[in-house]
Specification:
The protein is mainly beta. It contains three helices and eleven strands, in the order E-E-E-E-E-H-H-E-E-H-E-E-E-E. 10% of the residues lie in helices and 30% in strands. The longest helix has 7 residues, at 67-73.
């Protein structure tokens, strides 16, 4: 499109993409002037993301960075449950929590003894792609675990946290991470 582009009140719906013939980035809209507005929550096929390249003045579709794309880009071995860097943290947890897949990370979250808060930072790509479900589970005996906080795929909160009672009976907590991404 030559000239200014006004997206105020517009919608973008992309219903189907043939993965066999899709070449990225797929430029879907260009402009030469100024841009006003934006696409509110575009409807895109699963695994796709809309990017706005301000310099090139274009909107384009790209594949989302799911666990398997991240693993391939980082030469991860062992799949989701492997431990490519041998630090005791599974590859899937490294992806979900924005950890370094090539070096030992130490701790995966934080605990504040004064308040009893446990929190974990979530990877932006995992949130953008919506391929990770995070669940903090709690237990009083390390045998029976109950979901305490769940962030389903698509939850955009940058952290997941819960607060344990500091003066009550002992309670344990753990983070469970699952992916909806499918292996290529």
């Amino acid at each position: 499109m030559n000239g200014d582009l006004n997206l105020t009140g517009s919608t973008l719906v992309v219903s189907e993409i043939n993965p066999a013939t899709f070449t990225e980035p797929a430029v879907i809209l260009t402009y030469t002037g100024t841009l006003t507005g934006d696409f509110p929550e575009p409807t895109l096929p699963s695994g796709m993301t809309l990017e706005h390249n301000v310099t090139a003045k274009e909107f384009r579709l790209v594949r989302s960075v799911d666990f398997y794309a991240w693993a391939a880009a980082n030469s991860i071995i062992g799949g989701p449950h492997g431990d490519s860097d041998n630090d005791g943290i599974s590859n899937l947890v490294e992806y979900a929590l924005a950890l370094n897949p090539a070096a030992s990370d130490g701790q995966t979250g934080s605990y504040h003894p004064a308040t009893g808060e446990i929190s974990f930072n979530k990877r932006q790509d995992a949130m953008d792609n919506g391929d990770i479900t995070y669940v903090i589970q709690t237990s009083s005996d390390l045998v029976s675990w109950t979901p305490d906080v769940t962030h389903a795929a698509g939850n955009t909160s940058t952290t997941i946290s819960t607060t344990l009672t500091v003066d009550g009976p002992k309670k344990f907590a753990r983070l469970s991470v699952t992916t909806s991404a499918t292996a290529p």
